Amino acid sequence: MATRFDPFQEMDRVLAQVFAADRASATMPMDLYRDGDHYVLHVDLPGADPGTIDVNVEDRTLTVRAQRSARTEHDVQWLAKERPSGTYARQLTVGRGLALDRISATYADGVLTLTIPVAEEAKPRRIEVQHGTRPTSIEAGHPADATV
């Protein structure tokens, strides 16, 4: 098989691979939405070792950290090595009104899912409105005979 070697194209490919790996390892794609009285956060962590996943909350900062180890096969010639390895980390500042002590986390199929409940005191509630400053009573009979 005949191949044509272009040193500039090869250099471009190598540089793109290096910079893409740096960008990819620094980001964790995520989805965040509210479902009733809780928020759901899905974070993509493909290939992360479940034992390295760390989720913690300090004050109002939620931190997600995970590690994906590089494959270390010996005596192989890599033809493409585009999957990033290293530590993934992401921090989110969360608002008040969340029950941060009741966060639950699951990891399945390369996706970390956090469920963050809304605190009871932050949930919407109906306030009864009373009319007037004192109770009003109306007796049966003629409207002119009503007492207040």
UniProtKB/TrEMBL annotation:
Pfam families: HSP20 (PF00011). InterPro entries: A-crystallin/Hsp20_dom, HSP20-like_chaperone, Small_HSP. Residues 21-132 form the SHSP domain. It comes from the Bacteria. Residues 128-148 are annotated as: Disordered. SUPFAM superfamilies: HSP20-like chaperones. Belongs to the small heat shock protein (HSP20) family. This is Hsp20/alpha crystallin family protein. The lineage of its organism: Bacteria, Bacillati, Actinomycetota, Actinomycetes, Micrococcales.
